[in-house]
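Technical annex, item 7. During the second reporting period the consortium partners agreed on a shared format for inverse folding records so that results from different sites could be compared directly. Each record opens with the tokenized structure and is followed by the designed sequence. A conforming record, contributed by the partner at site C, is shown below for reference.
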């Protein structure tokens, strides 16, 4: 079974800003039908309306990936509307960096809840649909922090290593699904707003002058989705040329 490669139904988590927003806009411009999910519904409503005003197909639905119920309702709304789910882009993520000895245990748990549990909740919600279809594509946003560990990023890196492990497991188990890991380097977005330690936040922001636009990551996602159905782009790493 195959889906028309021209217009896929694409669910995007964390679509209210940064990479998720850029991905929604890029994929809609490529002719895909996008469904935006995030907690800030005013934002996703406005982005979806802007996409429609430009001639694209976009819907939105409130989504908190830490709640399995919320994830199920997001996926159900998209499936009810379009009758299928071709692609899930697991993009929602948080990055409250700090050193381990700062003991910000609540922030460790938040990263685990959003970056790992959130990804698993979304996979759980779409997998039965994709199985019924006999096809589907899961795109998971990891990070260069999923390839290496830096000070202040132990827990964040752990969550992104986990995303890569989950992706590889899903790929091996699911010969009818395509699975892509996209690992961005420094990218302009709102991600550093969540760093509560002001010294760490300033240090990270000092590196941000070399950051690439979120559209660069969106282009990579668009490329992976646009390949023929028997071509599975497994892993893409996109970082600023000047990043160490
Ligand atoms: P942003 O902060 O701009 O976007 C993060 C998105 O995640 C927002 O739309 C936010 O929406 C959403 N989100 C956060 N928590 C939840 C939740 N519980 N439920 C649903 N959505 C949630 O950052 P980026 O665009 O940079 O981040 C996107 C992804 O890219 C993340 O996974 C991040 O780890 C990864 N990444 C980013 C890099 C960078 O340099 N920017 C580098 C490597 C990876 P809302 O608050 O409205 O719910």
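Designed sequence (site C submission):
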């Amino acid at each position: 079974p195959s889906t028309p490669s021209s217009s896929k139904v694409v669910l995007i988590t964390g679509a209210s800003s940064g990479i998720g927003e850029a991905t929604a806009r890029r994929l809609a411009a490529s002719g895909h039908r996008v469904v935006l999910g995030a907690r800030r519904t005013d934002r996703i409503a406005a982005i979806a309306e802007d996409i429609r005003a430009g001639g694209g197909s976009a819907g939105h639905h409130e989504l908190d990936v830490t709640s399995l119920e919320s994830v199920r309702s997001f996926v159900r709304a998209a499936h009810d509307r379009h009758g299928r789910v071709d692609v899930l882009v697991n993009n929602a993520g948080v990055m409250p960096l700090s050193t381990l000895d700062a003991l910000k245990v609540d922030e460790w748990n938040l990263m685990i809840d959003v970056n790992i549990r959130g990804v698993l909740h979304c996979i759980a919600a779409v997998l039965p649909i994709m199985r019924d279809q006999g096809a589907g594509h899961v795109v998971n946003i990891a990070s260069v922090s999923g390839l290496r560990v830096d000070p202040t990023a132990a827990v964040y890196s752990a969550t992104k290593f986990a995303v890569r492990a989950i992706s590889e497991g899903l790929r091996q188990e699911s010969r009818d699904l395509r699975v892509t890991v996209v690992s961005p380097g420094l990218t302009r977005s709102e991600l550093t707003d969540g760093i509560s330690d002001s010294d760490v936040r300033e240090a990270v922001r000092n590196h941000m002058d070399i950051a690439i636009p979120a559209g660069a990551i969106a282009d990579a996602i668009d490329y992976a989705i646009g390949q023929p159905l028997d071509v599975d782009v497994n892993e893409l790493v996109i970082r600023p040329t000047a990043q160490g």
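The mean pLDDT is 97. The chain has one domain: 9-238. All partners now use this format for quarterly exchanges.
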